[in-house]
Amino acid sequence: MNRRKFFSASSAVALVFSDTAAKPAAAATAKPILMKLGCQTAPTNETHLKYLARYGVRNICGYPEIADGRLYATVDELKRMRDMAEKNAISVDCIAPPFLASSHIDKEKHPAIMLAESPERDRDIEALQTMIRNCAAAGIPSIKYNMSILGVLRTGRSPGRGDASYSTWRLKDAHPDPPLTRAGHVDAAMAWERITYFLDHVIPVAEEYKVRMACHPHDPGVPPQGYQGVDRVLGTVDGLKKFITIRESPYHGLNFCQGTVSEMLHDPGKEIFDVIRYFGSRQKIFNVHFRNIRGHRDEFVEVYPDEGDINFVKAIQVYREVGYPYLLMPDHVPQAPGDPNGLQSFAFCYGYIRALLQALDQMG
Description:
Strand content: 15-25%
Strand order of the largest sheet: 3-2-1-12-9-8-7-4
Radius of gyration: 21 Å
Largest sheet: 8 strands, parallel
Shape: globular
Number of strands: 12
């Protein structure tokens, strides 16, 4: 690159981030950058922690080793995980329990909460209450979870740039008459009853012990009549708005998957920013899955962060605008031959997010 092209490119980057070059006083009033590059990939062991540290990841969602098939980690198990991370200069800011994942109900080993099966449901909730107390004792401030029956729905993969392929959802290509799950028909009223029962028993404990509970939206949203007999009530922005009001608490919020929320929208490239503002201004975003899509509701592919319909430069500015203070994590990265577990794709995403944060900080 010659000297003229270099300065032209540098100027373009500065102008994209902000107009502070024209308005230098704006830097003095800009909100501080509190958000952090993060990751939620497993396992949380020495090898993977060194991989994360290599690419500048200093804050993670961790996965403790849990003995005896328990649904909660002990304080000692959590502290061992945290100490191992700290030896690699990494902070465990969040954990995920060994259930309430994004799995399909027919494959889930512990489905009682979403099936409303008693007394198993109460035993599973009690295990999560114990996990909350133990996280507080171990100094881990957040737990992320899912309330899903259908898991992550996709119809296949699409060719991407180079030799990469992208996870794809096209409703028109989905099974026209999908079989019911073992949950049977679950309409909106039934789904909200199960969610409310869970929140009524979990959020008071989270509030008592000051542990943030971050719920992931349904990925993706489905038509109003449902899919596989299930109404995905957390698959719309209106559903998420209702969810955060069911049990008012500063410890009840969202694992805000920007990709999943974009999949709910008809024009995500324009609409997503006001959605971020809605939940962010209410301090209901506890984690962000900072991933991009190309497409819209009912038809999309999951792409690299720099090539989707969402302007990530603008998105990160909006997170700063609302004072978002937690993790920005890549998720659902493209796959490629010779890239086991997507480690190369994740490394690209880490560098991209880290560069956005540094540029945002430098621009003021």
